[in-house]
Amino acid sequence: MNFPSKLIEDAVTEISRLPGIGKKTALRLALHLLKQNEAVTEALSLALTRMREEVRYCKNCHNISDAEECSICLSHRRDKSTICVVEDIRDVLAIENTNQYQGLYHVLGGVISPIQGIGPEELNFASLLERVSKGEVAEIILALSATMEGDTTSFYLSKRLKETGVKVSTIARGIPVGGELEFTDEVTLGRSILTRINYSQE
Amino acid sequence: MNFPSKLIEDAVTEISRLPGIGKKTALRLALHLLKQNEAVTEALSLALTRMREEVRYCKNCHNISDAEECSICLSHRRDKSTICVVEDIRDVLAIENTNQYQGLYHVLGGVISPIQGIGPEELNFASLLERVSKGEVAEIILALSATMEGDTTSFYLSKRLKETGVKVSTIARGIPVGGELEFTDEVTLGRSILTRINYSQE
Description:
2 copies of one chain form a homodimer. Chain A has helices at residues 6-15, 23-35, 38-54, 71-74, 89-98, 126-133, 148-162, 186-194, and strands spanning 56-57, 64-65, 79-86, 103-107, 139-142, 167-170. By secondary structure, chain A is α/β, with parallel strands linked by helices.
């Protein structure tokens, strides 16, 4: 594309560095900003810069936070004996939105992926072991994606955590609520039979 | 969504003001920026602010420009007797990318749309008449979208331009190159028959 203006070209180049945004979308966004009041662009720029410069990570759970410790770790209402291990901050938000979990979190910052060169050392794993070693934790819930990398990480974590003697569980995999049996893939369906829930025990 | 950080929340709010970007995508983009080097966010903010503050519009054709006149208007290679009227700057880029047009442009800045309260006065129409009145223009090519608003605008412009005596044409509507006849909608197909091209005259 030949841009009539270097300023536009620069803006389009920078916007299209964002994931999932190509040159055409970037141009549409740039032209949209040009049509709006200057204050809109200013507010956007400022919010981005401030976020990038000032945001901090909770020293306990690595969740995003405005202070040294995040609001979840600081809250007196949370059950400090349970830690839910997740891949990133979006997963914390997703679980928080369910209103079903009252414990603390631990954000790994990724999953083990040999292809991308991410091993356990690249993840926030040492600090998890440290939290466990303090003796206040009764259960670790692994809430990682049901992908190859997620499963590998869960397997690795469960093995390493077994040494500490803490109870380790993982979130259930099965057919999603509202999902029809015949359209569920066979691996999921197979797993849901193997890990069936015993009504008579409840 | 409950955000663990006010800074993230502000950034997500500002990003999701952009067209076609919802809260979830905005959060994904914000977290992406957090994972990148600080320089990425800085470059993005700066490019956006500079673009919004410093970009100018060509005094002749209202195309985006870094100077008082755009590079197309200033070029000695362009045919100054033809003006192609388009809705916005993206259309200029689209036509430039075809490499089929050597004339000048005139960016209307929109199309007539009574529902959105856009009449001819809101568009860069007076300046088009002024350019025509200088007597150097031989042909005006209307290249507006084939929508109701685009057609209305074309009709209005062709009527008003008729008074000036300049030749007015519009880009061809028909089946797109590569398009199959049976999948072309009937209105397009009907028009393509009515405005058929006479081979024997060529």
